[in-house]
Amino acid sequence: MPQPDDLFPEPPLSVEVPAGLTQPRLWVRRLKIWAEPGGEVIRDIELRPGLNIIWSPDGGDDPVGSQAGIGHGSGKTLLCRLLRYCLGETRFADEVQRDAISTAFLNGVVGAEVMLDGICWAVARPLGVNRKHFAIEGGDLDTVASMEGTASGIEPLLDAIENNILGNQTAQLARLPSGQKAWPVALAWASRDQECRFNNVLEWRSPSSESDAPQPASGEAKGPRLLALRAFVNAITEDEQAARSREQQTASELENSKRQKSFLEWDQQRRIERLIRDLGLDGESLPEMPLLIDSLKSVAEERLAAAAKLPAGDKGELAAARRDLQNASTQLRELELKLERLNAQKPVEEKLLAQINSALPGLSAAAQTAATPVCPICEVPIDKVLADGCKLSHKLHDEAECRARWEAQRREASDQQAKIDGLRSEIEASKPQIAIAQQARQQAEDRVRRLEQAADARNSTWRSATRYVDDVQRSADLVDELEKAKVGISALDGDLQRAREQLRGFEGKQAKAIHAISEKFSAIIRLLLGEEAKGTVRLTGKGIDLTVDVGGDRRTAAIQSLKVLAFDLACLCLSIEGRTRIPAFFIHDSPREADLGQTIYERYFQILLDIEERLAGAVFQYVITTTTKPPVSLNQLPWRREVLRGEPGDQRLLRRNL
Prior knowledge:
CATH architecture of the largest domain: 3-Layer(aba) Sandwich
Strand order of the largest sheet: 2-1-4-5-6
Organism: Pyruvatibacter mobilis
Radius of gyration: 49 Å
Distance between the termini: 67 Å
Region (Disordered): 240-260
Structural class: alpha/beta
Oligomer: single chain
Shape: flat
Low-confidence stretches: 1-5
Coiled coil: 318-352, 434-509
Largest sheet: 5 strands, antiparallel
Keywords: Coiled coil
Strand content: 5-15%
Protein name: Chromosome segregation protein SMC
Order of helices and strands: HEEEHHEEEHHHHHHHHHHHEEHEHEE
Number of strands: 11
Number of domains: 2
């Protein structure tokens, strides 16, 4: 009896090329590297529509190199990064490699001829320092790479790709931040980091590559990346996005309402327990809520009535006591300030006395000299009579004046000493006055404290009683608020269920887009693993689920990598057909490193060749780097575009060791 699969056989891989499409809408025609603008050309690699192979032979596979040569370290990944750089990515290598390259090529430039809807864009970007970025529509690459003056930046090319191919709606459908373009995110998918090892369909950028790709192309969260991918493959609509926004908003409101309800319950429980404890009702037989509120209210009102009967105290006496305390404090402070002033003045006056006393010996000597003059010219003592007739000097000391100055200085010293003695007496007299003032202030403080404690006892009882009444009223209000919260939560829960049901309906509507991917994915899996194999692509709540059935579900590491490659190839076919929002353009860096078998690897190349020669023509661009020897039929022009070697240095991409 025929099996279901025999009645409905899986369709073979096919690609329907839109009428009038004769070349890829986006492809790179040339990649060129200069040591400096207008200087030595390091590399000039011509690419083509269709399959482009960059081969780095390993060991015995190299037909002309050393048998001990290595395929790694030749610059394959750097070539992919430079292509990405010329298509708008921020960086072309990690920091260590960027520093090494900029040191070797201080004024180095990388350029590309990017074909966009048949128009050549000349792109030139710096590899070193102090260089400008250019993206010129219709420009000549060699001319643009040597341009001076105001740089255009890379943005004109990004804007053209965004507007002409992806469309402004794509960023909105992917829910990208305002102002962010969708192309940098799509480029991350179309040119996965080798470091991601083709492990997961939603892993595009690795932190170790330091690509600085924008969210959601990078980062741990895969949900936003899934949303972007769905936007790229037309598996989401504006209506679904609006419904998803409503679902998320409703879910957020429901969560907030639940948190608010939990808080209200906690607040009510806290107040009830405190009332029972403070009102002394522990151990009493109390009714359940809401009758408990009435019991607590009755006891609280009794406490308030009892507090109202307590004596209020003499407010005038307390006010007088506080004035007495203020006066005592003021008097004490004045005495303390006076003592501080005296203590500060005393050393100043003592210093002045020392200065006065230091002048007395000189004045005394001057008076004695005046009594027995000495000639100021020859310094020979002469008596007064001879001095009167001295022809050498007419300047004589005035004995009376000198003695008067000395006496005045002695009086000033005596007065200063008296002043200091007065200060000392005032200081000593202030100490017992301060002690008495301190005692008076302490007595005033004690009186105020006693009166305040008496008043506080009554006030505390009153405040406690009023708080009991307020807590009972708040607890009663919380009963109503909790009931409203429960009603609101029930309504929001219903809204959320309806929103999710609507989203499930949208998922069904988008099944056509996912089915188209799944159909081509399954056809590619059969070409790779045999006619008995089957592949399926499903959109789930957690992401995109890729399954491969070959006598059972296969989930090995190699099959996982194969799933990712087959998924990308299926989307490439759909892009050729114009059924996605992204160009038919992919760069795969060393997928064989992901543990694909040689047979499967060769079949993969054959599928790409079939798409180019039999199914679609050269209306796409697929760049693949490999250390594994390509199939013999493809290891030549026009498919093999460049051979790079890990050694010697002049065979590497930049023709030197860094």
